[in-house]
Amino acid sequence: MHMPQPPEAAPPARLLRLPEVIARVGLRRSAIYQRMSEGRFPRSRSLGPKCAVWVEAEIDEWIRAVSQIPS
């Protein structure tokens, strides 16, 4: 008896801590949080009272979008 294969699951989202986000985007902590409050930067997720993370794919997309803006 042949069982159908389950659909391929998407790989789990990779989560980034603030130091890696800072290194990738070249903004300081205060600038990141300022842009988040203005809706111009991906929102962080809270994993606990002192643990904020960002979804890597959202940061990568933000970098691509910003790099396409003409100077």
Describe this structure in words.
It is a single chain. The chain is an alpha+beta fold and 71 residues long. The chain is 42% helix and 17% strand. The chain contains three helices and three strands; from the N terminus they run βααββα. It has helices spanning 18-25, 29-38, 56-67; strands at 15-17, 45-48, 51-55. It has a three-stranded antiparallel β-sheet with strand order 1-3-2. A hairpin with a 2-residue loop joins strand 2 and strand 3. The radius of gyration is 16 Å and the shape is extended. It starts with 14 loop residues before the first strand and ends with a helix. The mean pLDDT is 90.
Topology:
Elements: E1 15-17, H1 18-25, H2 29-38, E2 45-48, E3 51-55, H3 56-67
Antiparallel strand pairs: 1-3, 2-3
Percent helix, as a range, is 40-55%
How many DSSP-defined strands? 3
Average per-residue pLDDT, rounded, comes to: 90
Percentage of residues in strands: 15-25%
Molecular shape: extended
Radius of gyration: 16 Å
The number of helices is: 3
Low-confidence stretches: none
Span between termini: 61 Å
Largest sheet: 3 strands, antiparallel
What strand order characterises the main sheet? 1-3-2
- List the helices and strands in order: EHHEEH
Could you list some keywords that capture this structure?
3 helices, 17% strand, Prophage_regulatory_activator, AlpA family phage regulatory protein, 3 strands, three-stranded antiparallel sheet, AlpA, alpha+beta, 71 residues
